[in-house]
């Protein structure tokens, strides 16, 4: 006992005798001091020591008189440190949390096998039973008795002899005591987890199976053994042959039998338990043999005993063990197992029977201590949990900061990649493939560690330095070379006037730059193609030399090309294994979670993906380190595109404001608004429509002026030039980024064939030799296989493009039909209402049709591309991109092209309208078709962007939530144990995230390119399009970042040198945009007719009278039969007006084209030629004046290559001089160049630069 001074309220400790009662009070916290303190206390019979609120217990392996009533009263109701350390203090603290704080609590008991965890849980139960109210002691005694009695039973079925402990618990146990609102115990529950089922079929040398098997063989009577077809010798059974019977097994069997009886197991239930154990033993003795390709059971006696014990027919059991039933496309077939598969299935059945037996025993125990009473009242009950957890078990209280959160169990090796699969995979063939695949991975040098402590098993992969060096050389990666004295001359910055001006004028905008404390500027590094022979260039021993993205890329490269079988060429690669269901997922790990401040993921989430940071620059280098060059380049392009939209948005806004400022000074709209009742317009439909006053379109004409005004042509020219400037400057900007990331000169290596491609050609006998990969590959006949698939694929594509056009045509028919139905208009006297309702409803209908057809076509495009024989992933992606974008182009733009170029151009005149399906074509209003084109653009462009933004965030969130719930709670047929997936590591956290799509960034690029088409091809009709695009992209950039960081698993980094085919698409769109702008201005706006009127018709050279000049006269007596208004509110109308250039009815050639029409047409065609050539010439000039790479970048690349080559030459010379011994650069300044030669080297550099200049 420790000695205390009775006169002092505090404890006085004689440290020389019993050490320190709390290890935090040690003067020096070292391992030696801690062990020495525990040794002193143990020798003084003091087995408990505190570490703060943690109690360390040392097993004395003998009875100790420290748990009596006196000790119970001593600790009852006392604070933790009022008395010497004791487990009673912890139990009392747990009970007081229930009684005083009304909160649940848990005692975690952890330690080595044999440390005394079971005894500790018994002591806690005893203490709680002793301190509860006397009235409730009977109840807790009942709970305690059941739990204690269950201990011996669960030890029999859940414990086994290991090399470290003769009674090692091979499962985790969590006991709960439930208290009502008065803190009286009313029930309890026992929960098991992580039962070591594999011990049933296999044990390590020197270990045994579970105790119950040996207890049954030694303790049962001869008659019982005879009834069970058993013998007392465990070596006669395969599953128990490694173990021997202990002398105490007979007594332990009686204890187990007594526990079963006291826990109210019936005699039949007890007999069922013994029968199942016997069936498992005989099941292990079932052997198989293959004769004439037919699988048979080798020992029929064992099979007969199993069927008898399990009470199934021998035939059914034989069929279940030797084959499996496959259902495919409505057909059911039986496929025979191989010997290995049959043995795997036999062992799986044995494990499943034992686990279900174990679960049933626990359920029976829990029924005996179930909490009685009203379920509604039980919501207010509280619990004390006692968790017994062995140190060998992998279930630990984890945090993102633990050493094994992203590492192997040794806490040192990082996890570079993770493979996952179902723990109880029903297909034995999958286990063989996994074994072969993982064996081949290890033969490549990768290090693997398998985690099997949950229903989802994980294979952790680590790439050691030797593997990274070897494959970096194979992949020709450009890696940073060592910092060498004098290398500053290579990478020093030069003076550039433009950069200095940008720096000076950018000082007021310092707030948009990144915080240098969070994202420090990267030091410029020299890079060279990695080579193990030139190891003097690279500091491979530096911890951060092989960055995470390099490690992931190397491992993924190996996974893609590793074999898992010998039967066919299709047995290659992780993608094939994933498609076959051998593995469920394969993914690299995120860097921590979103709540760990030290992680890169947390930093990017808060400082980049947050919408609050919308105005700041992007940390592109850090994005590249985290996601790889492909995704980083996408965000670099999106950011550059967004920044380039700023001047376009400003000019577009100014043009809109100009139209707003001149709204009431526009002659055309003023003439319309002041026309009053002087201008009567012809009906807009046959028979049912009345005449109408032109002044009714006053508001509509004013809105049309906002986009069709004097600066429209200037804005069209500006946007055409802007588009070229944007593309040219992007090439320059991307060249600098690519160089900074060490990807200059990168070209795609020969790609491995897609697993899907190989699977389709598995039966092909004809092979061809691939000269690049030096392997034989299946040969695909072009005319027999490829051409028919291509023909079918593109025929269907053009069919669906035709359907898209037909859908637009249907919308056009809808617009025409609405003009003939009065009831759709509501107030028929409101012409502005008529003109606005039809375009809006038609645009909304078109948006719905577009969205619906998109989903159908996306599925169809993937299906058709899968039909084609696309060998590599690049070929596959390009084919898919071509299909989808071609359809999207027609789907989105066809209706807009109709309004811009066809509507109102071929209407005819009242006496002879051009009709489609006997319906009159739509007419442009007197204000022109540009306003309606603007409405269409606003609804489709803005509506699509808003819908995409909502779906991009909502869909991943819902899927992630569903996966989280499913992984935790849903029990499927493949997951027979139904255990929850416990997230105690980065790989389990990432498992519930969404898998990275095989289409990658395709949808994100597509959305932006569609937007780019809107703001270039049709920007004339919607000057605010760049502004809306700018606002959308500011949020799109951050939402995309958030989506990738929060909802998706980390993608595999990919090296790219540009944005690929998307640049070519934008280049084509620029050419189309010039032609489109010219046609819109020439044929859809009033610009050219107004200029012709002012130049050749009006002597005052003004547009006064222009409105009247554009309206033709029509004699109402010339209406075709049945087309004149049947009912009219206008009296004595003899003349009406319509928008056309035609002769009046009194002319000698009534209703024919006048000469001015041909003048205007000639002017329009001339404008087309002039506009396209002038703008095209300016575009060519800009493209010529802006080089693809800055001059200083080209010079720097040459200088780096030259001086790196000089260093290599010098190092190779020194190697030869020293007998081919590789020098260490750290001991040779300036990379092996002698100090006296440094000036000469620099002189040669300057001389060569001068010569090149």
From TrEMBL:
It is found in: Cell membrane; Membrane. Residues 18-387 form the Myosin motor domain. GO terms for molecular function: actin binding; ATP binding; chloride channel activity; cytoskeletal motor activity; protein dimerization activity. ATP binds at residues 111-118. GO terms for cellular component: myosin complex; plasma membrane. It is a multi-pass membrane protein. Gene3D superfamilies: 1.10.10.820, Kinesin motor domain, Myosin VI head, motor domain, U50 subdomain. This is Anoctamin.
């Amino acid at each position: 006992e420790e000695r205390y001074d009775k006169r002092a309220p505090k404890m006085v400790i004689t440290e020389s005798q019993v050490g320190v009662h709390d290890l935090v009070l040690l003067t020096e916290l070292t391992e030696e001091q801690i062990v020495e303190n525990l040794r002193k206390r143990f020798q003084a019979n003091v087995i408990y020591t505190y570490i703060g609120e943690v109690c360390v217990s040392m097993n004395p392996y003998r009875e100790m008189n420290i748990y009596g009533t006196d000790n119970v009263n001593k600790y009852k109701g006392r604070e933790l440190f009022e008395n010497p350390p004791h487990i009673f203090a912890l139990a009392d603290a747990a009970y007081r949390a229930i009684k005083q704080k009304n909160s649940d609590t848990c005692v975690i008991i952890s330690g080595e096998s044999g440390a005394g965890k079971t005894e500790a849980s018994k002591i806690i139960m005893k203490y709680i039973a002793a301190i509860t109210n006397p009235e409730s002691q009977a109840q807790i005694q009942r709970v305690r008795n059941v739990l204690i009695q269950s201990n011996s039973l669960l030890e029999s079925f859940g414990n086994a002899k290991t090399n470290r402990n003769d009674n090692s618990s091979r499962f985790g146990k969590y006991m709960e005591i439930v208290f009502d609102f008065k803190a009286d115990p009313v029930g309890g529950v026992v929960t098991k987890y992580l039962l070591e089922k594999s011990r049933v079929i296999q044990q390590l040398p020197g270990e045994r199976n579970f105790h119950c098997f040996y207890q049954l063989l030694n303790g049962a009577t001869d008659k019982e053994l005879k009834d069970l077809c058993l013998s007392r010798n465990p070596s006669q059974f395969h599953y128990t042959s490694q173990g021997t019977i202990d002398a105490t097994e007979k007594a332990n069997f009686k204890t187990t039998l007594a526990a079963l009886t006291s826990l109210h197991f019936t005699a039949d239930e007890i007999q069922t338990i013994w029968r199942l154990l016997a069936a498992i033993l005989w099941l292990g003795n079932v052997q198989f043999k293959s004769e004439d390709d037919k699988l048979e059971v080798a020992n029929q006696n064992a099979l007969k005993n199993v069927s008898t014990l399990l009470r199934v027919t021998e035939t059914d059991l034989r069929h279940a063990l030797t084959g499996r039933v496959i259902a495919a496309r409505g057909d059911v077939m039986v496929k025979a197992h191989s010997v290995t598969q049959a043995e795997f299935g036999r062992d799986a059945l044995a494990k499943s029977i034992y686990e279900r037996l174990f679960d049933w025993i626990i359920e029976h125990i829990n029924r005996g201590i179930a909490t009685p009473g009203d379920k509604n009242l039980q919501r207010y009950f509280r619990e004390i949990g006692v968790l017994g957890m062995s140190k060998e078990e992998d279930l630990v209280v984890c945090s993102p900061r633990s050493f094994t959160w992203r590492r192997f169990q040794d806490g040192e090796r990082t996890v570079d990649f993770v493979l996952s699969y179902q723990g109880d995979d029903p297909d034995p063939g999958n286990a063989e493939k996994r074994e072969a695949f993982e064996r081949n991975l290890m033969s490549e040098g990768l290090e693997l560690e398998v985690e099997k402590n949950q229903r989802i098993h994980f294979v952790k992969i680590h790439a050691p330095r030797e593997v990274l060096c070897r494959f970096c050389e194979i992949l020709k990666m450009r890696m940073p070379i060592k910092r060498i004295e004098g290398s500053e001359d290579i990478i020093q910055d030069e003076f550039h006037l433009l950069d200095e001006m940008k720096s000076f004028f950018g000082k007021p905008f310092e707030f948009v730059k990144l915080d240098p404390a969070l994202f420090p500027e990267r030091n410029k590094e020299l890079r060279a193609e990695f080579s193990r022979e030139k190891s003097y260039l690279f500091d491979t021993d530096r911890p951060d030399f092989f960055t995470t993205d390099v490690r992931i890329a190397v491992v993924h490269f190996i996974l893609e090309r590793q074999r898992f079988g010998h039967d066919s060429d299709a047995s290659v690669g992780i993608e094939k294994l994933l498609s076959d269901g051998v593995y469920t997922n394969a993914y690299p790990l995120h860097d921590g979670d979103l709540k760990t401040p030290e992680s890169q993921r947390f930093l990017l989430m808060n400082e980049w993906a947050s919408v609050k940071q919308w105005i700041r620059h992007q940390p592109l280098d850090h994005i590249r380190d985290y996601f790889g060059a492909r995704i980083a380049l996408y965000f670099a392009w999106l950011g550059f595109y967004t920044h380039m939209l700023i001047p376009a948005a400003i000019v577009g806004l100014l043009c809109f404001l100009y139209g707003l400022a001149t709204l009431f000074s526009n002659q055309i709209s003023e003439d319309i608004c002041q026309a009053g009742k002087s201008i009567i317009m012809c009906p807009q439909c046959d028979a049912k429509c009345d005449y109408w006053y032109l002044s009714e379109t006053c508001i509509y004409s004013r809105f049309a002026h906002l986009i069709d005004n004097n600066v429209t042509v200037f804005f069209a020219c500006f946007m055409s030039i802007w588009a070229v400037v944007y593309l040219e400057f992007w090439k320059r900007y991307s060249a600098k980024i690519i160089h900074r990331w060490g990807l200059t000169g990168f070209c795609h290596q020969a790609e491995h064939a897609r697993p899907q491609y190989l699977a389709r050609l598995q039966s092909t006998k004809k092979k061809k030799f691939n000269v690049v990969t030096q392997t034989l590959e299946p040969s695909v006949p072009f005319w027999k296989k490829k051409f028919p698939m291509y023909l079918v694929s593109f025929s269907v594509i053009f069919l669906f493009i035709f359907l898209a056009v037909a859908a637009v045509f249907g919308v056009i028919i809808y617009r025409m039909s609405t003009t003939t139905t009065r009831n759709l208009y509501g107030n028929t006297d409101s012409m502005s209402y008529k003109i606005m309702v039809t375009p809006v409803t038609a645009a909304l209908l078109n948006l719905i049709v577009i969205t619906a057809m998109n989903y159908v076509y996306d599925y169809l495009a993937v299906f058709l591309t899968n039909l084609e024989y696309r060998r590599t992933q690049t070929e596959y992606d390009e084919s898919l991109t071509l299909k989808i974008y071609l359809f999207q182009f027609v789907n989105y733009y066809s209706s807009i092209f109709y309004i811009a170029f066809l509507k109102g151009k071929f209407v005819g005149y009242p006496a002879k309208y051009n009709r489609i399906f006997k319906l009159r074509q739509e007419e442009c209003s007197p204000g022109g078709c540009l306003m309606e084109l603007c409405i269409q653009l606003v609804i489709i462009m803005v509506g699509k962007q808003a819908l995409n933004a909502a779906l991009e965030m909502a869909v991943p969130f819902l899927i992630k939530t569903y996966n989280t719930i499913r992984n935790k709670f849903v029990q499927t047929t493949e997951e027979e144990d139904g255990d929850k997936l416990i997230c105690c590591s980065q790989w389990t956290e990432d498992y519930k995230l969404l898998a990275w799509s095989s289409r990658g960034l395709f949808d994100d690029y597509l959305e932006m390119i569609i937007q780019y088409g809107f703001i270039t091809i049709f920007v004339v009709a919607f000057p605010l399009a760049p502004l809306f695009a700018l606002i959308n992209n500011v949020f799109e950039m951050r939402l995309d970042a958030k989506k990738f960081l929060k909802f998706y698993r980390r993608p595999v980094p990919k090296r790219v040198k540009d944005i690929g085919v998307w640049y070519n698409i934008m280049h084509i769109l620029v050419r189309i945009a010039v032609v489109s702008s010219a046609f819109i201005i020439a044929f859809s706006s009033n610009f050219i007719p107004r200029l012709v009127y002012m130049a050749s018709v009006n002597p005052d050279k003004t547009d006064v009278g222009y409105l009247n000049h554009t309206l033709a006269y029509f004699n109402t007596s010339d209406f075709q039969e049945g087309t004149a208004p049947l009912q009219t509110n206008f009296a004595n109308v003899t003349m009406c007006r319509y928008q056309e250039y035609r002769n009046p009815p009194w002319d000698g050639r009534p209703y024919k084209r006048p000469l001015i029409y041909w003048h205007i047409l000639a002017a329009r065609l001339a404008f087309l030629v002039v506009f396209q050539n002038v703008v095209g010439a300016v575009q060519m000039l800009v493209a010529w004046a802006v080089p693809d790479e800055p001059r200083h970048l080209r010079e720097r690349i040459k200088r780096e290559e030259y001086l790196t080559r000089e260093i290599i030459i010098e190092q190779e010379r020194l190697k030869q001089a020293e007998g081919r011994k590789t020098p260490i650069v750290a001991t040779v300044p300036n990379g092996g160049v002698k100090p006296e030669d440094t000036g000469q080297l620099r002189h040669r550099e300057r001389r060569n630069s001068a010569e090149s200049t």
